[in-house]
Amino acid sequence: MATVGTHLSSALYMSEAFATAGAQHEQDLGIRLGTLCAYDVDADGIADLNDLVTVRAIGVEPADLECPWKQIALVDKK
Questions:
Q1: What is the pTM of this model?
Q2: How confident is the model over 28-72, as pLDDT tens digits?
Q3: Residues spanned by the domain of 23
């Protein structure tokens, strides 16, 4: 669970290519944050946060998506 603005939500990072997922997984801090797994996912209930119309429709401020989440979660431990 993560807090985005005033919303508490779960997050799932997905990628079609393993190399992209690996690069995203290890970026900036140079440490592994967890385990990479392959799943068969029913994606009907997943929101595309790259789509500004969707982001606004679910009540998330675009600026909240640009927060330093790794600093907050891993360094500040909030």
A1: 0.43
A2: 666 666 677 777 877 777 788 889 999 999 998 888 888 887 788
A3: 2-75
Reported as half-sphere exposure (CB side, CA atoms, 13 A), residue 23 has a value of 6
| Tokens 């997984």 found at | 25
CA distance 11 to 44: 15
The number of domains in the chain is 1
Q: How many residues does the chain have?
A: 78
